[in-house]
Structure formats: structure tokens, C-alpha cells
TrEMBL record:
SUPFAM superfamilies: FAD-linked reductases, C-terminal domain, FAD/NAD(P)-binding domain
Organism this protein belongs to: Pseudomonas carnis
Family affiliation: Belongs to the GMC oxidoreductase family.
Protein name (Swiss-Prot/TrEMBL): GMC family oxidoreductase N-terminal domain-containing protein
UniProt domain Glucose-methanol-choline oxidoreductase N-terminal: residue ranges: 87-110, 259-273
Xref: Pfam families: GMC_oxred_C, GMC_oxred_N
Domain of life: Bacteria
Amino acid sequence: MSTEDMNDTFDYIVIGGGSAGCVIASRLSEDPAISVCLIEAGGSDKSVLIQAPVGMVAMLPTRINNWAFETEPQPGLNGRRGYQPRGKTLGGSSSINAMLYVRGHRQDYDQWAALGNQGWSYDEVLPYFIKSERNQRLNDAYHGQHGPLSVAEVSCPSALNAAFIQAAGINGIQRSADYNGARQEGAFMYQVTQHNGERCSAAKAFLTPNLQRPNLKVLTSATVERVVLNAARATGVQLRQGGKRIVLKVRHEVVLSAGSFGSPQLLMLSGIGPREELDKHGIAINHELPGVGENLQDHIDYVYTYLSPDKANTFGCSPTFSWKMLKAMAQWKRERKGLVTSPFAESGAFFKSHPDLEVPDLQLIFVPAIVDNHARNLRLGHGFSCHLTLLRPKSRGNVRLASADPTAAPLIDPRFFSAPEDLEVLMRGADIQRAILDAAPLAPYRGKPLYALAQHDRKAVEQDIRNRADTQYHPVGTCKMGHDPLAVVDDQLRVHGIAGLRVADASIMPTLIGGNTNAPSIMIGEKAADMLLRSRREG
């Protein structure tokens, strides 16, 4: 949408049309008396690659609807630069991800509350998860069936998933009836954010059905340059769209929902952040806040893959499968059913690296396809893969500015394995991962490993992890919530020291949750909208 003939003043301006931003803009604009402007750097979400679930394989490894960031060289990864795909479109990363609906563990949120963040315990955030959710199967104290976000079963699962779950059971990981319910631990089929065979992103669920609202303006392909401040208060937003610089004014509040990389970057570009960093780039300091960009946490992930002789139940690069996929595309176009509905990641498990632990610290994601370097290394043939994800890393990194240019990618440094215990836990998990993949139920499907590795050679396993492990796409924490010296927002998500400015996205997480971060980001959007509306009512 263009800014021509548009009022330049709004009650609320939301920066970032991702998983949280779409929710906030939608919920606020439910009241026709409230004017809302949502600003997104990417384009619309109309692409068939977004709507067709299998289209993620074209977006994740490329720049299609994707910022496709890289990290700084990582000493813990033998000097490699990690890859950081993030959604650049309405819906944000919920428009390019694998659609897995995962909330994390009860203890994750109770820990946030224990850190002094009132209102963020599990029992207090659960109603917001339920409010969003329209679960197609589960209907109990943990789930909702009346929200905008459709949560469904994998509609066309591969036969390999049953073998994987059986193999997990042989290795002591029993089946979980609901990993988002009373007990996270166990093996299971993932539930996915889909509706009638299409992706149900945050945009599809919350935003695009409501674009006709006269009090909701959505600007796409618009780059926010800074938040405009006056006497320690946010008064508007400066952006560039179509070669024009525009300043929009705000009556009440600006909400940053630009993600764990974009939100700290915009705060620093606005003169809010560590003094040394702002001085380095010649940015005038409006408010010194040393925690901006600090506390970066991310799930490090290690994939093990086997080639497979089975072409009937796996995805792959072969003439047989190409013909099969052409027919599947026609079926999806007619019926919204079949292989095109696959999220690739179909089954998985949460488990403990040691039996004495209170909660699972590792996650498995099973894929009936070859996964090599985020699907950037295409391989001929068929296979199956298993992601092993470290859920609660001790390593901490940061996000910094490359320059004062708002179009420049930020400097992203997760510092993977800077805490040695992270590697130790992942290596223990790798033993279990291999035992599951080597178990009898998967034998009919198992060929040679993609990367041959002696299972009991600890140095070889360590080097393979350092050579190939990378993100599971869950960066959080760079505008952490709290009251300590490195906290950026309080438990109402208000930026410390600046009135009329909040942050609401995964960057506010003080600690990384034990699971995928899309559903929690949507929850954060729901809770933030509730806070904004309550603040408005209270004057």
C-alpha cells in the first residue's frame, strides 16, 4: 500500500509485520476507534511459495522472501559463517518456516517469572496461547479451538515417521500424546500451522483477513530508518518507501516487532543502545541502554542424514520423484491435499541428555528427505535426515551495527559453543540421535550415511559438529525483558527510559525457550496487544 492520500498520524505504529507484529496490528484494529499503521520491509504474502507448504524449500535457502543473513565467523564452528534465514514478507518468518506448532516447556515461562517478570509464568501466558489457537484435534485445558491460528495434523505423512517414532521408543523415548500439553517429553508427530492444506502464517491468520478495516494501514516494501524521539518519548517513525522519505506521527505508542536482529538494530539507529556502539557509528545518543543487542541466544542444530533406496516414502532429486511432484502439484491445486502440504519436518521428539534432568534439553526433528547445509547443498537421490537441537544453550552472543545505514545487514555473532558445556550436551545427544537412526525400524529405508562417521570416535563426532552444525532458526533475547543492568524492556515490554515505545517479539525473551519460537512469538504479540489496550483504557 502506498502512503499517498494517507493520514500521517496514527494511534499506534507497529514496525515489522512478522509473527508478533501481525497479531498486534490485528488485535488493536479490532476497535474501530483505534488507528493502526503496520510497516513491513518485505512485500505481500500472496506468493504460492508461501501458501503451498512445500514451497519453503525454495525460500529457506535463497533470498526469496528471506533476509538470508550470515553471522560473523564463528570460532566454535571452525571459523565458518553461520546462515540466518529470516522472513522478509508479511508474516515474517512464519511465512517461510516449517510451520511446526511448538510452545516450549512450562518451566521456561516460570523461569521468566522467577527472574522478576510479573505476568509471564506459564499459567499466565497459557491463556494467550489458547486465545490464538484453532486446534483441529486437541480440545482440553491446554488448547483452544476458536482462535485465528489454525493448528492441524500433518495431512500426508511419510511412512518413515512411524518407523522413527518406533525407533525412538526402542531407545527409551516413549510416545507423547501432546508435546504442548501436560508432558513435553517423548516422540510424536508434529502439529503444524496449516489450514485446508495451506500455510497458516501469522499474516494469514491475523492480518490479511482484516485488510479492509478502514482504521488499519499496512505499508509494505518500506524501510524504517529510525524511531523519532522528542524529550525521551517516541513521537513517530521515519521510513523510506519508493525512494521517498516519510515521517509518520504517533499519538500513543510505537511498537517494535522487527525481530531479534531488526529490533535492536532499529533501537541503535534511533540512538538507543550502548554508548560505545553508537559513538563508533556517529549516532547521537538519545538514551544509553547497554543491553541493546546483547544476550543473543540461538538453538544450535546438528543434522545427520542417511541416503535411502526408498523413493516411494521420501522426498528426493530423481526423475521418478519429479514426475510424482508434478502430479502432486496438480492435486494440491485441485484439492489442497497431497505431498505439497508436507512441512518436510513431520515427526520428532523431546528428550533428556541425562536422566537426572528435570526437563528435556534436546529436540529431534525428523525429515523424510536429505538435509544438507539448510538445503543449500542439493543432492541427487533420496534420503532421510534428523535434526538434533540443543534447547537451552549457555552460549551468549550479540547483535551490532555494521554501519549507520538502515539498509545494511546487522553484525550477528551468536558465539556458538563459546560455553563448552553446549558442545558436551550436543555430543551426548548425537549418540542417541545415531542410535535411533541406526535402529531396526528404519533399516528398510536406510542406505549409506551422507557424511560417514565412526559413531564412537569422539573427536570425529566433535569435528563433524563443528564443521556442519548451525542455527535451528530461533534467535532470541537481544532486547531482553527484565530489571537488571542489561535489560532493555520491563515486564510490560516498555523500553527502559523511553516513553511511548515498546518491543514485542522474540527479542524480549530473557532466556531461550525449549522449543521452536514461532508460537511463543505469536503469544508475545497477543499479550502485548492486551497490555496496550489495558494501558489505553487506564489512560
